[in-house]
Amino acid sequence: MLPRMTRHLDLIFTSLLALSLSLPVHADDEGTFNTVRVEGRNYINLADFTRFYGFSKRSQQDKVITLRSRTRKLQLTLDSTQCRLNGITIWLNDAPMEHRSSVLLSETDVRKTLDPILRPWTIPRRRVKMVMIDPGHGGQDPGTHGRRTTEKFLALDLATRLDKRLRDAGFETLLTRRNDTFVSLEDRSDLANASDADIFVSIHFNTANTDDKPNPKPHGIETFCLTPVGVSSTNSIRRRLGLGDFSAEPGNRFDTQNMILAFLVQQRIMSILPSAEDRGIRRARFFVIKATERPSILVENGYLSNPAEEKRILSAKYRDTLAAGIVEGIKRYAKLMNREQE
C-alpha cells in the first residue's frame, strides 16, 4: 500500500509543480509587491497576494479566509498566526489583519514562509546527495523522559531506521552519533559544516510540562526550521513581548531551502500517519539548525509526556513509518533541488 501511495503522491507533486510554473502572475518575477507600513512592519495586501499566486477563488466565513486554485488551498485566520496550506499547518510570524477595509499579510511571512512553498522553482538549487542525520541527546544527556522510555534511545533508533532507508534510496549518509555517546551541540554543527553533507536533519521527541509536572494532553508531530532575521521564534517569550531578533545566523543563508524542506517532510509524515496530530511547521533558533551551514530542520516526532502517543512511539512499526515519512519528504526535496541539473 505504501509504494502505491508514494507513486500517487509523486504524480500529484509533479502535476502541482508543472501547473505552478504556468500560473499567471501580476507582479514581477521577483515577487515585488506594493507594501503598506503599519506599526513599523511591512505588509502586503491580500488582494495583491491572491492575484500574484494565481488563487482564483476567495471566500470568508467569520475570521477564516480561504484561497483556492486548482492545486492549492490556503486557509488564513484573522488575528491568528496559524494557517493551513494544502492541509498542512504553518505558523506565521504575524497574524493577518484588517486595516482600512483591506486584509494585510506580513511581508516577511510572504517572502520567507509562503513564497518558497508556493513558488519552489525560484529557490536556488543545491544538489542533494548526502544527508547528515543528527540523533538528539546521548550519553549523559538523556533528553526528555516518558513513563517507559528515554528520548536519547528513541532518537538513535529512529535515526538508524532513517539511515537505512536513505541509503536504500540511493543517498549517502552521515550520523552525528551511532551509539549512546554524548556529542555537544557545537560538535554536531561542526561535524556537519566540515562534511560534504547537503542537508542536516535533527531527530527528537517532545515533552510538555505544566508547573514542572508532565502535561499528558499535548500530542503530535512538528517540524522546526530556522527563524528568519528580524522576527521572533514561534514559541519565544520575545514574541509575546512583540520583539524580534535582528541578528543573522549562518543558517539564514538557506531560509528558503529550510522552509521547503520542512514543509515537504511534515507533509509526507502527515500523509503516511494521517491519525497523528499535525502541530505544524514552526520557527526556532535551536543551536544545531542556526549554526549549521546548509539547509537544516529539526523534527519533533511526538510527545513522550502523552501516554497514548508514547505507546505508539514504542512500537517499532510506528517508528519505521515515521522514518518512511521523513525519507519521502527528503526524496521530494532532493527531486526539486536536483531537477534542473539532471
Describe the structure.
The chain is α+β, with helices and mostly antiparallel strands. The chain has 2 domains: 24-110, 2-Layer Sandwich (Copper Amine Oxidase, Chain A, domain 1); 130-341, 3-Layer(aba) Sandwich (Aminopeptidase), CATH 3.40.630. The chain is 36% helix and 24% strand. It contains 10 helices and 17 strands. The strands form 4 sheets. Strands 11-10-12-17-15-16 form a 6-stranded mixed β-sheet. A 5-stranded antiparallel β-sheet has the order 3-4-5-6-7. The radius of gyration is 20 Å and the shape is globular. The model is unreliable at 1-10 and 12-29 (pLDDT under 50).
Number of strands: 17
**Which whole number gives the mean pLDDT?**
89
Tell me the CATH topology of the largest domain. Aminopeptidase
Query: N-to-C SSE series?
Result: HEEHEEEEEEEHEHEHEEEEHHEHEHH
**Strand adjacency order, main sheet:** 11-10-12-17-15-16
Count the helices. How many? 10
As residue ranges, the low-confidence spans are 1-10, 12-29
CATH architecture descriptor of the largest domain: 3-Layer(aba) Sandwich
Structural class: alpha+beta
How much beta, percentage-wise? 15-25%
Let me know the CATH homologous superfamily of the largest domain: Zn-dependent exopeptidases
Radius of gyration, CA atoms, in whole angstroms: 20 Å
Give the count of structural domains: 2
Shape: globular
Q: Span between N and C termini?
A: 29 Å
Percent helix among the residues?
A: 25-40%
Oligomeric organization of the protein chains: single chain
Q: Mind summarizing the main beta sheet?
A: 6 strands, mixed
Reading off the top of the CATH hierarchy, the class of the largest domain is best stated as Alpha Beta
